[in-house]
UniProtKB/TrEMBL annotation:
Name by which UniProt lists this protein: chitinase
GO annotation, biological process: chitin catabolic process; polysaccharide catabolic process
GO molecular function: carbohydrate binding; chitin binding; endochitinase activity
Keywords, ordered alphabetically: Carbohydrate metabolism, Chitin degradation, Chitin-binding, Glycosidase, Hydrolase, Polysaccharide degradation, Signal
Organism in which the protein naturally occurs: Cylindrobasidium torrendii FP15055 ss-10
Bias type Basic residues, positions: 451-461
C-alpha cells in the first residue's frame, strides 16, 4: 500500500511538469506538420526531411500542431483524402473501398503529444483544388464526417485510430468560399457542450477580407486565426510599411466583427527562406522583433504561426528563438532521433504511362520520363519532370522516385503544398479527386467511447 501511494505521488508530480496549452496566452507557437516542405525543396538532404510527429513535441516550444492536410473532401467511397507527404498518404495504405490513408500508427504519437500539453488539430485544404463544397448541405454533412473520422465521433475508418484530435483548422487557399460558414456552424453545433474543449481555427491570407474564409470567420465564433503574412503584399517583409502591414486591421476585426471577441490573432510567417515564395522570409531576429512589438501593441495577439515544422527545425530552430523572444518556455525534452526516408524498394515502370505535356495530373499520379519514375505532388500540366514548376517558386511538382529498375516508395515524397502558396490552387477551380492509390490496409476496431476517453484532456478555458 505504501509503495502504491508513493507511485501516485510520483505520477502527480510528473503531471504537474506538463506545460499545458493556455489559449489566453500571447506567446503561443503554432507550427504546421505534414507536408515535408523542407524535403520538397531540399531533395538531396534527406536527413532533415520531415521527422516523426513526436520529434516536434519533444520540448515546450511548440504549442499547437495542425496536421496538414485533408486535401480532397469527397473521393472514393465518398470519404476524403488525407495527404501527409513522407509520413502518411494513400500510397502508404488505404481503408477498404476508399482512398483515405490509414495512418493509425500515428495514434500513439498524437496521444503522446497531447499528454505533453500540445493541441493537435486536423487542417483542411491546402493548395490542391480538391478542397471545395458544392453548397451548404454538403459542407454540413462533411462537418459530421470530420467529427467522426478525427474528433469525438466514431467510425470504422478513423485515420488516427482512437486518438481524438483537439479541433479543426481551415487552411483554404483555393477553390471557393461556398459552404465554409455552414461547415463551421455545424462543427460548432456538434462540438460545443462536449466534456472536451474543441478548437476551431483558420489560416487566412493577410489581405483583408480573406477570399475563402472571410465570410466564415465573421459569421461563426473561431478560437484563433493564423494569418498568412507571406506570399502577399501585406507580409512580414513589409512590416515597416504602414500602408502594407495590416495587423491592426485584423485586430480591429477581432474586436468589432468577430462573433468571438476573445479570438486570438497570430502572425503567420515562413520558417525559412525556402518555406514560401522567394523574398517572403525574415530571419529569426527580425521575426522576433516584429512579433514582440505586435504583442505589445495589440491585445488580440496570440503568438506566431510557422510554415512548417521541417523548415523550422532545419533552420536553426527558428521556432525556439521566436518563442523565447515572446517570453515563452522552450525547455524540456531530450535528444531527438532522425528518421530516414524509405529506401528504394526496387521494381519497374511497367504499366506507368509516359509523361505527356498536354495531360492534367493530380497529386499522386505517376509517369515515366527519361527512364525514371516520377510522382506528382499536386495538380500540374506541362511541368517537365526534373525541372522547377512553371509558377517560378522554385518548387518541383514532380518527385523523382528513382530509375525504373530501382523505385523509391511513392509515399516518401508526395506533398500537396510544399511552400504554402496560393497560385497552385488557382490554376484550376475544378473539383479534382486525387488518383493516388495504395495497398488496402484493414482498419482496427471502431474506437469505443471508453477508448476515446483515455486520451481526453480537460478544457483550458
Amino acid at each position: 500500500m505504501l509503495h502504491s501511494f508513493s507511485l501516485l505521488i510520483a505520477l502527480a508530480g510528473l503531471v504537474g511538469l506538463v506545460s499545458a496549452y493556455d489559449h489566453s496566452a500571447n506567446n503561443n507557437m503554432v507550427v504546421y506538420y505534414g507536408q515535408n516542405s523542407y524535403g520538397a525543396t531540399h531533395e538531396s538532404d534527406p536527413a532533415n526531411w520531415q521527422q516523426t510527429l513526436s520529434t516536434y513535441c519533444n520540448d515546450d516550444t511548440i504549442d499547437v500542431i495542425p496536421l496538414a492536410f485533408v486535401a480532397v473532401y469527397s473521393s472514393t467511397g465518398e470519404l476524403p483524402e488525407l495527404n501527409m507527404a513522407n509520413t502518411c498518404s494513400a500510397a502508404s495504405g488505404v481503408f477498404p473501398g476508399t482512398n483515405l490513408a490509414n495512418c493509425q500508427f500515428l495514434q500513439s504519437e498524437i496521444s503522446a503529444c497531447q499528454a505533453k500539453g500540445k493541441l493537435i488539430l486536423i487542417s483542411l485544404g491546402g493548395a490542391t483544388g480538391g478542397a471545395v463544397f458544392t453548397g451548404d448541405a454538403q459542407a454540413e454533412a462533411f462537418a459530421t464526417t470530420i467529427w467522426n473520422l478525427f474528433l469525438g465521433g466514431s467510425s470504422s475508418t478513423r485515420p488516427f485510430g482512437s486518438a481524438v484530435l483537439d479541433g479543426v483548422d481551415l487552411d483554404i487557399e483555393g477553390g471557393s468560399s461556398a459552404g465554409y460558414a455552414a461547415f463551421a456552424r455545424k462543427f460548432r453545433s456538434i462540438s460545443d457542450g462536449q466534456s472536451k474543449k474543441y478548437y476551431l481555427t483558420a489560416a487566412p491570407q493577410c489581405v483583408f477580407p480573406d477570399a475563402y474564409v472571410g465570410e466564415a470567420i465573421s459569421a461563426v465564433p473561431f478560437d484563433a486565426i493564423y494569418i498568412q503574412f507571406y506570399n502577399n503584399w501585406c507580409g512580414v517583409i513589409n512590416y515597416d510599411n504602414k500602408n502594407a502591414w495590416n495587423f491592426g486591421t485584423w485586430d480591429n476585426w477581432a474586436k468589432t466583427t468577430s462573433p468571438n471577441k476573445n479570438v486570438k490573432v497570430y502572425i503567420g510567417a515562413p520558417a525559412s527562406n525556402t518555406a514560401a515564395n522567394a523574398g517572403q522570409y525574415v530571419d529569426a531576429a527580425r521575426l522576433s522583433q516584429i512579433a514582440t512589438e505586435t504583442k505589445n501593441q495589440y491585445s488580440s495577439f496570440g503568438g506566431v504561426m510557422l510554415w512548417d515544422a521541417s523548415q523550422a527545425f532545419a533552420n536553426g530552430r527558428i521556432d525556439k528563438t521566436v518563442k523565447a523572444a515572446l517570453g515563452g518556455s522552450t525547455g524540456g525534452g531530450g535528444s531527438t532521433t532522425t528518421v530516414a526516408p524509405p529506401t528504394p524498394t526496387g521494381g519497374s515502370c511497367g504499366g506507368v504511362s509516359a509523361w505527356n505535356s498536354a495531360t492534367v495530373y493530380v497529386g499522386g499520379d505517376q509517369v515515366s520520363y527519361n527512364g525514371r519514375l516520377w510522382t506528382a505532388g499536386w495538380w500540374t500540366q506541362n511541368d517537365i519532370p526534373g525541372q522547377p514548376d512553371k509558377n517560378g517558386d522554385g518548387a518541383f511538382v514532380w518527385k523523382d522516385q528513382g530509375a525504373c529498375s530501382s523505385i523509391v516508395n511513392a509515399a516518401a515524397l508526395i506533398q500537396t503544398d510544399s511552400v504554402h502558396i496560393v497560385n497552385k490552387a488557382q490554376e484550376t477551380n475544378v473539383v479534382v479527386a486525387g488518383t493516388a492509390t495504395g495497398p488496402v490496409v484493414e482498419s482496427t476496431a471502431t474506437p469505443s467511447k471508453r477508448g476515446m476517453q483515455r486520451f481526453r484532456r480537460g478544457s483550458h478555458h
